[in-house]
Design brief:
Layout (H helix, E strand, L loop, with lengths): L1 E3 L13 E12 L5 E9 L3 E8 L2 E7 L5 E8 L5 E2 L6 E8 L3 E14 L6 E5 L6 E7 L4 E3 L1 E3 L5 E6 L4 E4 L20 E13 L6 E8 L13 E2 L1 E2 L7 E7 L2 E2 L9 E5 L4 E13 L9 E2 L3 E6 L1
Length: 303
């Protein structure tokens, strides 16, 4: 199994579910009369304390016999597979059995999860001896035997070093000239121009969601929380004019990247091109005329 290092904590090592079927996970013997039985499955593996949201479901991440690698699991006795969690048991269907021995099968499938960033190289994964336990929830006079199920065999993981993604951007952007009358009131705005950002990810990168961390070096605290970048005119920071950077038509907020998601890249190498529009905005009643300049600090963040 191959896996790219450089992924964030709780990134999936397994690209698909690994499934096994236990044809005799539970045996029970009726007392001579038909009985209704219902099984349950509960986790016995150690909870790592971490949770993973995947496809609209929340999974308990269990510890394996390697502290760097965790496991998520699903259990099912038919077509529906349900997450195995420490918060609740997985209850099977109620079934009527006649006198005699009854063998109850169960499907189990697992995926491996990185509990930390894994270094490049080969890891001998030892597996997991016990994942869950199955027993009977409803029984009459019959006897039954519970069973430990879902052990995970060891395997070899080849951890490949992930390449990085590089952000390309222009060092300077020339904006169009406007007249003072184009911004007659505070809050009025007019288009100023645009520039292109290019994110180039190498062949061994996983898929990423890309965000921009943007700050204004001329503003107090980098301008965090503001939508405006100072337009400095003749040395005056409070010129009455500012710039707004537009991401898909919406002003970007200065600060961390959570509000400035610009797109995503696919695993295995991808290029993301993003156009950022710029507009002038009037910020004060009194303004300073002249030629201005603005500065921004941009950092690419991916997860």
């Amino acid at each position: 199994m191959s896996y790219l290092s450089g992924g964030q904590e709780l990134s999936l090592i397994s690209s698909v579910w690994h499934e096994s079927v236990a044809p005799k996970a539970l045996d029970c013997m009726a007392s001579g009369e038909p009985e209704t039985v219902q099984t349950f499955t509960q986790a016995v593996a150690v909870d790592s304390g971490k949770r993973l949201a995947l496809d609209g479901r929340v999974y308990t991440v269990f510890r394996s016999d390697d502290p760097r690698i965790g496991v998520i699991a699903e259990i099912g006795d038919g077509g529906v597979m349900l997450p195995l969690t420490v918060e609740s048991q997985v209850t099977g269907e109620r079934q009527l059995i006649n006198a005699g021995k009854f063998s109850y099968g169960l499907r189990t499938r697992v995926r491996l999860v990185a509990l930390e960033k894994l270094p490049a190289g080969v890891i001998a994964f030892p597996g997991l001896a016990r994942l869950s336990w199955q027993g009977m929830k409803v029984k009459g006079q019959g006897s039954y035997t519970g069973a430990s199920i879902g052990s995970i065999s060891g395997t070899t993981l080849e951890v490949k070093a992930a390449e990085t993604c590089k952000l390309g951007y222009p060092s300077k952007v020339a904006l169009k000239k406007i007249m003072m009358g184009d911004l007659p009131t505070v809050g009025s705005s007019v288009a100023a121009g645009s520039f292109q950002l290019t994110v180039n990810c190498g062949a061994n990168t996983p898929g990423y969601t890309m965000g921009l961390s943007v700050y204004d070096p001329t503003a107090l605290g980098g301008g965090v929380g503001s939508n405006n970048v100072n337009l400095v005119i003749n040395g005056a920071v409070a010129s009455g004019y500012g710039l707004q950077l537009l991401n898909a038509g919406k002003p970007m907020e200065l600060g961390p990247p959570s509000n400035n998601i610009i797109g995503s890249t696919a695993a295995g190498g991808d290029v993301l091109n993003k156009t950022i529009d710029v507009r002038y905005v009037r910020t004060l009643p009194n303004t300073v005329p002249g030629k201005g300049q603005a500065m921004i600090s941009v950092t690419l963040i991916h997860n």
